[in-house]
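S1.2 Input.
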Amino acid sequence: MTLIEHRSSPAVELAARHRRSLQAASARLEVICGCMFSGKSEELIRRLVRADIGRQRVVAVKPAIDRRYSAGAIASHAGRQWPCAAVADTAEIAHLVTEHDAQVLGIEEAQFFDAGLVDVVRRLVDGGVRVICAGLDLDALGRPFGPMPALACEAEQVTKLTAVCMVCSADASRSQLLVDGEPVPWQDGPLINVGGAEAYEARCRTCFTVPDRPA
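S1.3 Output.
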């Protein structure tokens, strides 16, 4: 499987024209959000697989900062993967879509991109591309994370997933960052810590705690 996998077909030109008209109709923004371990990457991969089965040209990207599991793939905690390009900034995303004439764009860990992602995504959707963004809606201190709130406001479809609270087994919507087994205290400014089960727990609202958080 490559970055783009488009299966050629002996379909007649009429069918090709029909697919092109469907692409214009399917252009939209979809946002998949939730806490750590809620299945965001699994859901993103599922949608990309369906687009690929539908013989659409698919491109996937993630921020270069995310090197967990594989530098060249979207990877779920359960081990499922989909090939992608690791990009340093949002400008590269539009270039890749143009270069490969993509019909569907998957963006993993969208919260790590800068605010410019919103404008890039808007232009791509207006240009006929279906864009699927997956990412954390809240950071480890419970604050809205990066461009995710703005993307959710722009989206035609928002899917919010939950995990299982590691304390009480309720539905979890927060990502608890732990250092030496203790929750990280409040800090001003961005909190960026790329990690997995070695650093984070999924927690519900009640069990989630941020020491020294301002009242």
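S1.4 Remarks. The mean pLDDT is 89.
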